[in-house]
Specification:
Length: 246
């Protein structure tokens, strides 16, 4: 199960799906002779760090800040301990960074959908884009097609299979204001107060469990998987707007 805020409301459900569900998949894979399991991990496992970009060797913070991050960490540990360490399937964990693209969640999926999906839906409905909390936080947005490619490489590569943890991110980040300007199609120099004053954007209070920024070091992904992102962030936004005819 994904999303941070709902995990505060249903930590038991997140544990059942993300931890126990992962255990069940590994047991089933071992029983039926599955060669390798690629785990969809999350950059949320890092918690709030002081050093960026985030490398896989960084010690994790004592608390993941929310049940979602905690249960995704548990999944990583299960991949290692119930995989090759106990004669189970080969395993590899891909820590996704803020995946976006077609079929992403929108306002129809509730208030905790992905920010790009929310913004595009609000633009379509001619509503102000909602900025939480001040728009200065930064995210490493990664195109879904690039994430799919990383999974295919991880499933086939001879360089992995021992429970490795690998960042899958673009290696650059953008502020929420940057995203809003791209979605609105206004110059990147447009002042934030002008966007609020003209009702193109509206401010909302902060949300629990959010870190200030995410930024992946993708050195290991290049080394082990020969993976690099192909889609530029600006091109990804343009493609989504074209698909939605905005």
């Amino acid at each position: 199960m994904a999303r941070i805020q709902p995990s505060f409301e249903r930590p038991d459900r997140y544990f059942d799906v993300n931890a126990l569900g992962t255990k069940n998949i590994l047991l089933c894979a071992k029983k039926h002779g599955v060669r390798r399991v690629v785990y969809s991990a999350s950059s949320s496992a890092y918690g709030d760090q002081a050093v960026y970009p985030l490398t896989e060797k960084l010690p994790l913070t004592s608390q993941a800040m929310h049940p979602y991050g905690s249960t995704k960490r548990m999944g990583e540990m299960l991949m290692r301990d119930m995989g090759t360490a106990t004669h189970g399937p080969q395993t590899v964990c891909l820590r996704y960074f803020n995946v976006f693209g077609p079929r992403q969640t929108t306002t129809a999926d509730g208030p905790y959908a992905t920010v790009i999906g929310i913004f595009l839906d609000q633009l379509r409905q001619k509503k102000p884009l909602t900025i939480v909390p001040d728009g200065n936080q930064r995210r490493d947005f990664t195109w879904i097609g690039d994430v799919v490619h990383a999974n295919l490489l991880a499933g086939a590569s001879k360089n992995v299979g021992q429970g490795e943890i690998i960042n899958i991110g673009a290696g650059e980040n953008h502020s929420i204001w940057d995203v809003a300007r791209l979605v609105l199609g206004v110059p990147k120099e447009t002042p934030t107060d002008e966007l609020v004053r003209t009702h193109k954007c509206a401010m909302l209070p902060p949300r629990k469990g959010e870190v200030f920024q995410t930024l992946a070091d993708r050195t290991l992904a290049k080394k082990l998987l020969d993976w690099e992102p192909a889609m530029r962030f600006t091109d990804g936004i343009a493609e989504l707007k074209s698909l939605m005819r905005l």
